[in-house]
Every structure is written in structure tokens, then in C-alpha cells.
Amino acid sequence: MMSTPNPAAIARWPDVPACYDWLSLDRRGLWRLQGEPVAHPGLIRFLNNSYGSDGAGNWLVHNGPQRVFVMLDYTPWVFRLDPDGGLGTHTGIAASAPDAAYLDEEGSVLLHTAAGIGLLDDRDLAAFLAACQRGDGSPADDTALLDVMEGGAGVFWHGLPLQSIARDEVPARFGFRPRPTP
Questions:
Q1: d(CA 38, CA 51)
Q2: CA distance 36 to 120
Q3: pLDDT tens for each residue of 74-104
Q4: Mean pLDDT per 10-residue interval, the chain, length 182 residues
């Protein structure tokens, strides 16, 4: 997904500097301005609708002609499990079915969809883990999940093998920059 600026705004203000270190996305998909949660529904809607990538691994929001780069607490997307079993993004759009599922060394779940890589909101972790099974169809217990965290295999979520991944490898592997810089 590309965030595109308003061409009329750029024509009117061609030299507006980019903004860094003001806007961030936390692990639950909540926007923060200088560390403080954004609570205004209109601003949240604007940020959600204007969020995208620049094709160079940076995630940003276009505010007219200004590019406001987003610091990511983990991944560019935060996914939430819908009650009907679907998956949605922190911006409120439906996500495609995941094609890969990962468990990092901290116990965080990451899902890869057509939109890209995203962290599963921790409030949905219990439901996710309850749906995990061993290869024989039995529920995956703590031992099986710990084995995956240490590089093992044999746990599945909705037919997808749960794979081990190191948190520090995620940005390079999936092509995003968690801390954009000028």
C-alpha cells in the first residue's frame, strides 16, 4: 500500500519538510503523537486513511504535502482477530488470509498477509493459541509452543505451520524500517 500525497497541496507548498520522531504506532495498533495516545476519533480516522509506505521501507502519513514518518514499535501492521474468524488491520480494513504465521522469542505472534507483515494484537493471543494444534490434531500445549520459539516445528494454526522468528530479523526480512531517519 502506498501513501500518496495530494498533488494540489504539493504544487502549492513544494518545499514542506518531512517530519520525523513525532508519530508512532504501538504494539496494539494505537497512534501516538510524541508518545501520547491519540484519542480524537477524527484524527485517528485521518491517520488510518492516510497511512502507507513509500516503497523504500518507510511507513508514513501524508498530511497535505508533508510526509510524517511513523516510528513502529514492532511491525507496520497490527492485526486483530474478528469474532467471525477473519483478520483486520489496526486501520480498520479487512486483511487477506495469512500465508505464514510466526512466533518470536518473546512469544509475540506475527502474521504475513498480502498487506505485509503484522503483529497480532496481544489481546487476541489467547484465542490464537487456543486454535493452535500439533500435527496430530491435538491442542498445542506450552511445551510445543516453547519448542517453536526455540526453532522447533510441529505446531499449526488453521493449517499454517507456526514458524520461529527472531524479533531483530523481522525488519530486514520483511523490508521495513522501524525508525525512519532523514
A1: 15
A2: 22
A3: 999 999 999 888 999 999 999 999 999 999 9
A4: 52 75 97 97 97 95 93 98 91 96 97 97 96 96 96 96 98 98 90
And the C-alpha cell for 101? 504465521
Sequence-separated (6 or more) residues with CB below 8 Å from residue 123: 28, 80
pTM of the predicted structure, to 2 decimals: 0.90
Domain termination residue (choose one: 72, 91, 109): 72
Chain centroid offset of residue 45 CA: 17
Do 23 and 61 contact (CB within 8 A), yes or no?
A: yes
Residues 99 and 162 occupy one common structural domain: yes
Rg (CA), the chain: 18
* Count of Cβ atoms closer than 10 Å to residue 10 Cβ: 15
